[in-house]
Amino acid sequence: MTPISTTCLRSFGRSAPRLLLAAAVALLALAAPMALAAAAGSAACPSRTAAAEYRLPENPQELLRLDDEMRAFFAARVHRKGSREARIDEIAAAILGEHGLHFRYETGGVYDVREAFRRRRGNCVTYALLVVAVAREFRIPASFNEVAMRPLWDRAGGIVLESRHLNVRVELADGTYEIDLKGSENRREARITTMVVDDVRAFAGMFSNAGVYRLAAGDRVGALRLFELATLTDPSAAFAWSNLGGARALAGEAECASLCYERALVAAPDTMAALSGLAHLQRTAGRVDEAERLERRSLRYREHNPYYLSAVAREEFAAGRLDEARHHLARALRIKPDEPEFRGLMIEIDGRRRLEREEGRRTGRVGAKRGEVVVAGR
N or C: which end of the chain has fewer CB within 10 A? Predict the structure, then answer.
């Protein structure tokens, strides 16, 4: 993980958002096997210790509540009468600085603000909550900001993860600031759009985020409860319904999973993880026509998912279609070149292709394409 930076970046013009700090992972989305969507932008596995020790409070309002110890800590470091910009800088320093909390990134660290203060670490969603809570304590109108990015993929256990991101937006007299953690270089290049979201959407993301990590850690019951809390907190959050559908699908509850995916698509018809998950369920149930219709809608999404491409490559490898397998795996590696599994499979495919070429030379079939007979020489 790239170390967290405490440097404030001020290179943006007045018309564009300015990043106080750079970025990492956040809102998570999940899907069933071969539906292939979900979320986490770090290769590190979720923290099993954190999952075992800590439970988010089920009351969303508790997620942002500061206690007296926190108020005293920040009151000693942030001047209430300073300019809004100065207070933002002081809050960032109080959280991230060596003489403050020295807050550090933790992949699976999904905590309410009091627990984040106690542990002095957390992931991007946790950091965003902490900044918003402290900023509002000092009368700074901070908002949650959802950042759409080009897909970043990872996997935890049997769950494929697609990263979303949440940070904090503050409007100041000289422009817009985004306050964020630094977890990836070239984050600006990966950004597509940003959108301010209300507190309930951020809280739903928090529950959903925690649910993904808990599911990856093997706690299916705890994960389902968190996904349900996400949908109850914000019934219009498509990602929450899609995650719940994925968890239900993994539990073998196909009918319930289908209903969840359909709710996600009502909330946002372009929810690709839900489309892909629903297509998988329809195909498994033998409803091929409906599955193909859904697959056509989600084809571009699936073909940008390196784990989907590697699964296709494995099927082609098993069927002996080596050139096709290599083609799909090469695309997966272009998207995610740091995945050891892909490199291992490529070694297997290339090894099999070499053996076939050597066998072809011995049998006079050099350069043969599948289904053709080529005789060497005349």
Answer: C
